[in-house]
DNA sequence: GAGTTTGAAACT
DNA sequence: CAGTTTCAAACTC
């Protein structure tokens, strides 16, 4: 099938183009020059970025310290070396249940370019970590826990540590590691590290749980990182460094990703996101690898937080955003790291994803993913509550597919999953096994085709992969003008064009996105429960919206449609407390930096992220989340975006008919503030630390 | 599960 | 840019 398809695809101009590009390269694959170039290429994007997010040596150092164990190095080496070999999804690398949850998704992917550490490796790591932790506990004050650990563990450590050092200290090496691989030069470079981190993280968590076990406790995270003071601190430091510096070093990102993955078992999502990453560029590609390989498993069973993949889409179009993305990613991961509590709700992934999305990309896809995630999450929980309900079952299935970025499923018959009709493609993720698509080209194997198609689509509409729903904080007067009446300040970027559904069904993208219709909508007979085009309906202010919300009947309807809403109610109280407590203004100032540029030029950006964040965070219940979401958004919205970017308003970016958006100009600067704010938010929002063991 | 409806995406 | 067609999700039965 694929071959045939590929041929067919190749026949198209796009594909031909891809081939042309690919073939020439292959000719020179073996060339030393080619290798050299390959090795360099990954770095370039970063340097070129406005905000240089070059790999932060400090971060590496931290990591190094933390992961000096011989195994690490060996693992690292082996991973790098075999990265190419990981393509075989059938490999039983993840046999253990514990890891399985977290890692399986990757394992199952057809591409499997980003295989996580094998179960054996993980086990080993766990053992090591456990030892290490024990050691640290015994010697909490041990200044050189790492060294001690090394000595304790084995003599090989020195060698390994050296390797690790080299690995860490030489970003170039890391990035170029896989350069030899013609097909996936970039991917390899990052994946190993990612895998490694994931493994480590899992190991740590497992160790903690096993040894002490307070997995379910609220303070678990802290303990986790504080107990093994050295390692924990180092990890934290690395995270901090990333955040503070705003440097989106690959390592930092990886770490965060790791956290994210570990906590949420989001690996699948990550894989699926690979598409986005790939699009974005070499770096993305690296990250993407992880995701790409797992398209097979992702699918699945778990509700993955979809978000991440989507974000990346933007990257593709805006390489410059990559850094931003990375940073966000870092934040996200960071958040996870700091506030594992989110895990309980699956939020962690969402946050990560959101952050990624926000970071840059334009993210329709992100948005969608978030939605999906939320939906998925919600559904899962709902299911738990009422597993028997057929409707819920259906929803669950649907949402699972939609929601998770990773779990999004399509049924494309004619589009080959290379058009925006395909939800997976639109979301920036590869199709996975659960998809019922025919002649699907949206797979890692057709990466070139996918990327080329994406480019084509983006050339037509730079924001094609941007989030459709924008959660405006309302900070921007401009935005407010348009959306002041909308609940939660959220709006569909382009607006809908509903004629018959009354904007009361999911046919309506506004409704589907849980946002009210706006002046941008050309809908007829709008009855959007989340806010009518004419301003009637949902309350005008966020606060009102949150407080008042829709009437009971609407609520019931919404709950039926968005099961997560119910949950949200509870969450609002538990999770939102912090936000509510915080004065919006203050929050906004802090948050502004990341707030999605929703409207802004940043193509990629942030709005999607914000939306995702909102939704995902809150399970996407549309209206309700509004406040929370908004708060978050505000919190993160970059000032420059709010202030004045010409394109800052969704409205601005839309063409008269609302269909075309001007390409965003990007300059994302990721202020440390933004990052910090995000982090703060997380900390606050995470009252307790749910057990890491459950994987959702 | 099949068929219909719907509106976005794509095309002209 | 508007109109039409294509497409796949959402929905209904």
Automatic annotation (TrEMBL):
Bias (Polar residues) ranges: 107-121, 645-656
UniProt main location, coarse: nucleus
Highest taxon listed in the record's lineage: Eukaryota
Keyword tRNA-binding: no
Membrane spanning stretches: none
Subcellular location, record wording: Nucleus
A Gene Ontology term for the protein's cellular component: nucleus
CRC domain: residues covered: 406-531
Disordered: annotated segments: 1-20, 83-121, 641-678
Pfam families (alphabetical): TCR
InterPro entries membership: CRC, Tesmin/TSO1-like_CXC, TSO1-like
Keywords, in A-Z order: Nucleus
UniProt record similarity statement: Belongs to the lin-54 family.
Protein name as it appears in the record: CRC domain-containing protein
Species, as recorded: Castilleja foliolosa
């Amino acid at each position: 099938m694929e071959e045939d398809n590929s041929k067919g695809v190749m026949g198209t101009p796009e594909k031909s183009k891809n081939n042309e590009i690919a073939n020439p390269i292959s000719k020179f694959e073996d060339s030393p020059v080619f290798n050299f170039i390959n090795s360099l290429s990954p770095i370039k994007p970063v340097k070129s970025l406005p905000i240089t997010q070059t790999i932060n040596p400090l971060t590496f150092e931290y990591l190094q310290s933390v992961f000096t164990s011989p195994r690490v190095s060996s693992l690292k080496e082996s991973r790098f070396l075999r990265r190419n070999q990981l393509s075989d999804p059938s490999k039983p690398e993840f046999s253990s249940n514990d890891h399985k949850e977290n890692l399986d998704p990757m394992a199952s992917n057809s591409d499997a370019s980003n295989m996580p550490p094998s179960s054996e490796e993980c086990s080993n790591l766990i053992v090591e970590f456990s030892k290490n932790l024990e050691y640290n506990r015994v010697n909490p004050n041990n200044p050189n826990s790492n060294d001690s650990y090394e000595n304790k563990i084995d003599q090989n450590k020195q060698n390994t540590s050296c390797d690790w050092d080299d690995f860490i200290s030489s970003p170039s090496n890391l990035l170029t590691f896989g350069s030899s691989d013609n097909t996936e030069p970039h991917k390899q470079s990052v994946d190993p590290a990612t895998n490694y981190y994931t493994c480590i993280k899992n190991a740590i968590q497992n160790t903690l749980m096993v040894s002490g076990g307070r997995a379910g406790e609220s303070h678990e995270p802290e303990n986790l990182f504080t107990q093994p003071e050295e390692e924990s601190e180092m990890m934290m430091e690395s995270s901090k460094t990333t955040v503070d510096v705003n440097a989106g070093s690959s390592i930092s990102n990886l770490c965060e990703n790791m956290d994210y993955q570990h906590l949420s078992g989001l690996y699948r999502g990550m894989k699926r996101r690979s598409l986005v990453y790939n699009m974005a560029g070499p770096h993305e590609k690296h990250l993407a690898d992880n995701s790409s390989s797992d398209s097979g498993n992702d699918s699945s069973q778990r509700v993955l937080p979809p978000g991440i993949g989507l974000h990346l889409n933007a990257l593709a179009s805006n390489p410059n955003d990559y850094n931003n993305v990375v940073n966000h990613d870092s934040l996200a991961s960071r958040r996870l790291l700091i506030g594992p509590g989110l895990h309980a709700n699956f939020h962690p992934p969402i946050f990560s994803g959101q952050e990624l999305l926000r970071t840059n990309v334009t993210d329709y896809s992100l948005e969608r993913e978030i939605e999906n995630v939320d939906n998925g999450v919600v559904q899962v929980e709902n299911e738990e509550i009422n597993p028997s309900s057929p409707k819920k079952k259906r929803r669950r299935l649907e949402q699972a597919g939609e929601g998770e970025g990773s779990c999004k499923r399509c049924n494309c018959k004619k589009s080959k999953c290379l058009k925006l009709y395909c939800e997976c493609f639109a979301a920036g993720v590869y199709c996975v096994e659960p998809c019922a698509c025919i002649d699907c080209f949206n797979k890692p194997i057709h990466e070139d085709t996918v990327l080329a198609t994406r480019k084509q689509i983006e050339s037509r509409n730079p924001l094609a992969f941007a989030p459709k729903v924008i959660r405006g904080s309302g900070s921007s007067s401009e935005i407010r003008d348009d959306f002041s009446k909308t609940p939660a300040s959220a709006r569909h970027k382009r607006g809908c064009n509903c004629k018959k559904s009354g904007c009361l069904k999911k046919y309506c993208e506004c409704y589907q996105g849980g946002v009210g219709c706006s002046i941008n909508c050309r809908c007829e007979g709008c009855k959007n429960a989340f806010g009518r085009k004419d301003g009637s309906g949902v309350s005008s202010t966020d606060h009102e919206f949150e407080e008042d919300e829709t009437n009971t009947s609407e609520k019931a309807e919404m709950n039926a449609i968005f099961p997560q809403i119910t949950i949200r109610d509870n969450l609002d109280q538990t999770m939102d407390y912090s936000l509510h407590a915080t004065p919006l203004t203050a929050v906004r100032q802090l948050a502004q930096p990341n707030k999605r540029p929703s409207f802004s030029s940043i193509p990629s950006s942030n709005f999607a992220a914000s939306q995702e964040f909102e939704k995902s965070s809150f399970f996407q219940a549309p209206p309700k989340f509004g406040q929370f979401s908004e708060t978050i958004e505000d919190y993160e919205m970059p000032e420059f975006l709010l202030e004045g970017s010409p394109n800052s308003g969704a409205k601005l970016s839309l063409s008269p008919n609302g269909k075309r958006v001007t390409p965003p100009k990007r300059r994302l600067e990721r202020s440390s503030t933004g990052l910090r704010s995000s982090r703060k938010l997380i900390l606050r929002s995470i009252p307790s630390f749910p057990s890491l063991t459950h994987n959702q």
